[in-house]
Amino acid sequence: MIFRQLFDAETSTYTYLIADRETRLAALVDPVREHVARDLALIDELGLTLAYVLETHVHADHITGAGLLRQRTGARSVASKRGAACADLHLDDGDLLHVGNLVVRVIATPGHTDDSLSYLVGDRVLTGDALLIRSAGRTDFQNGDPAQLYASITTRLFTLPDDTQVYPGHDYRGFTVSSIGEERRWNARVAGKSSAEFSAIMNGLALPPPRHLAVAVPANRSCGEA
Fold this sequence. Notes:
Blueprint: E1 2-8, E2 13-19, E3 25-29, H1 36-45, E4 49-54, H2 66-73, E5 76-80, E6 89-91, E7 96-99, E8 102-108, E9 117-121, E10 124-128, E11 131-132, E12 135-136, H3 146-155, E13 165-168, E14 178-179, H4 180-186, H5 195-203, H6 213-220
Parallel strand pairs: 3-4, 4-5, 5-6, 10-13
Antiparallel strand pairs: 1-2, 2-3, 7-8, 8-9, 9-10, 11-12, 13-14
């Protein structure tokens, strides 16, 4: 597997490129519109063909590059069945997506938003904004629900093998990768906490709204093309 982790400094967003070495087919996960040229240049340099653009959820902090990538490459956009209606393909828990010989397993992980998905590829899980490194995605907008997120993390993600590598949708402290075993032991919001304790933490965060919330959510419901 070819795997690259890409970064948007303004919103601390990670975009992931995954590709099958044999067929050279690729997928981008959570692309940022401002970095479409960068991502396409990398795909070209590596001799890949973009087949899919996957969203982990409807984002509130940046505008997706899915629409532009679809226009420029013919790649199919992919989202949750509860996500953006504009996507070409809608997936749900347990669905499998084939990128060449790579198999992407869909894990529904609602709670940050009601449409949140994680993607398991081999020994790596791309968790979007559900499970972050030593943290978890906020639950105070877009039908977020702390009890639901706690269940997603503890009964879905934490049941993966300990050595599964965790690649989140964001990081604000300079971390790039963790593991399920590490997060089960050291995640300050979840480790050793009950659902009620987790909910109290999440409900007490009192964070300001994401800076681009009013623009990003409507745009992303239109695959970034609005």
